[in-house]
């Protein structure tokens, strides 16, 4: 899994469908739209959900802290960072 596109996002526990949809949309916006590496995109989406989404409705860690990424290698992360710097 050296390609960031080969990573898998998952949760450690069952999470509300609406908060998951909000986080997923923001994650993909940061990753594909803004060119962030997947771990950075996930962290930014988690912070957004915790701090800004729906006036704090999703601030409890239950709604955002259980999301993880599997399969992102250090090489892929560094390569994606170099690519972002070139653009």
Give the beta-strand count.
2
Total individual domains? 1
| Apparent shape | globular
What percentage of the residues does DSSP assign to strands (E)? 5-15%
Listing every helix as H and every strand as E from the N terminus to the C terminus, the arrangement reads EHHEH
Mean pLDDT: 85
Q: Distance between termini?
A: 24 Å
Biggest sheet: strand arrangement: 1-2
Main pleated-sheet profile: 2 strands, antiparallel
Uncertain spans: none
Share of helix, binned: 40-55%
- Gyration radius over CA: 13 Å
Helix/strand class: mainly alpha
The number of helical elements comes to 3
What does this molecule look like?
With 87 residues, this protein is mostly helical. The protein has one domain. Helices cover 51% and strands 9% of the residues. The chain is built from 3 helices and 2 strands, in the order E-H-H-E-H. It has helices at 17-33, 38-51, 74-86, and strands at 8-11, 67-70. It has a two-stranded antiparallel ribbon. Helix 1 (17-33) crosses helix 2 (38-51). The radius of gyration is 13 Å and the shape is globular. It starts with 7 loop residues before the first strand and ends with a helix. The mean pLDDT is 85.
At a glance:
With about 90 residues, the protein is mainly alpha-helical. The protein has helices at about 15-35, 40-50, 75-85, and strands spanning about 10, 65-70. It is globular.
